[in-house]
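Table 4 source record.
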Amino acid sequence: MKHLPKKICLSCRNFSLHEIDSGSCKVIKGLTSYPVKSVDDTCAQWLDCGQQYFIRTGWIKGRMAKEKGEKVNTETGIIWKAGQ
């Protein structure tokens, strides 16, 4: 069975993720400032972003782990703290 993401902003081609829970909607191209949307918002102009959805969810999980202190970034990559 193939995993299908919900039709939310997080899985939309027009969405640009900026924070863990929000980003900007770029349905109308060329604006100087794009409207801020929650990752769970929906609209009629949703377009599937494909693999980008999984990249975004991985980025969110990594960012949350970093904020909790479960992992740290170094010059050579990510190191998980002992016991993780």
